[in-house]
Design goal:
The structure is a homodimer. Chain A is mainly alpha-helical. Chain A has one domain: Arc Repressor Mutant, subunit A (Orthogonal Bundle). Chain A has five helices and two strands. Chain A has a two-stranded antiparallel ribbon. In chain A, strand 1 and strand 2 form a beta hairpin. In chain A, helix 1 crosses helix 5. The longest helix of chain A has 25 residues. The first copy, chain A, starts with 10 loop residues before the first helix and ends in a 5-residue tail after the last helix. Chains A and B meet through helix 1, helix 2, strand 1, strand 2 and helix 5 of A and helix 1, helix 2, strand 1, strand 2 and helix 5 of B. Chain A binds a DNA duplex through helix 4.
DNA sequence: ATTTTATATCGTAAATATACGATTAATATT
DNA sequence: AATATTAATCGTATATTTACGATATAAAAT
């Protein structure tokens, strides 16, 4: 049980799901917001803002990085993050295309059967 | 440990994250697609399409229902699902507004510091 | 050189998610 | 009435996520 069946889906579905998963925690939404908000990429500031321990924030940053949504560079003892706009926009557009396509179908069908 | 800190974030952040979580599994993306695709709401068809056991599909349907993204009605022995467009669009628009707002900031800042 | 500061990583506990088979419940078919 | 069909729910195993403190690492300040 609990065997991973995720890979048996279409690549596009897996990618959409992965992006959604990356932003499926309020901390990660808040982090993206915080980074997008400032003109200089912040770092430990995020820890100040969030109601989470430093190590937990670091973990969330790691996941956002893994998803390619943010980038980080080390600046002295500090660590500086910014949005990776290329990936961010690409993912956002992909998700939006999914929404739009679904909506288009609904226009065509119009049959609200439930 | 593993205490739930999610409720300590802003309501808007929690809502965005919850929607993202609802669509954070390829099976659920595939289910939404399948339902949106047909003009008649399907049911056991979904089980045929997905590489998952009936009970697992049922579980995923339950989660989509919990998120308000789909609705179901019983029709004899069959169960008929359709997209709850009101919630779906509202959620999709909310997420999109988040993307747009972030992007707008990036236009303003332009400082790619990393 | 020592201490401080900033952040990543490790270890770990607890919670949640994923998946399935078995069972249940309720309608349909024979 | 007996059986078949459909889908939800239950129980359960395993995997993943979330969270923290402790520790490690590396630069900065003293």
């Amino acid at each position: 049980m609990a065997v991973n069946k995720k890979e048996e889906f279409k690549k596009s579905e897996i990618e959409l799901a992965e992006f959604a998963k990356a932003i499926s925690h309020p901390a990660r939404i808040a982090i993206l917001k915080a980074i997008a908000d400032r003109d200089v990429c912040i770092c430990g500031e995020i820890v100040e803002i969030l109601p989470l321990a430093q190590s937990t924030v670091s973990q969330h940053l790691k996941e956002l990085k893994k998803a390619g949504l943010i980038q980080g560079t080390i600046d002295g003892t500090k660590s500086c993050y910014c949005i990776n706009w290329k990936t961010f926009e690409k993912s956002a557009n992909g998700l939006n295309a999914f929404f739009e396509k679904a909506k288009a179908k609904s226009e065509a069908n119009k049959a609200d059967c439930c």
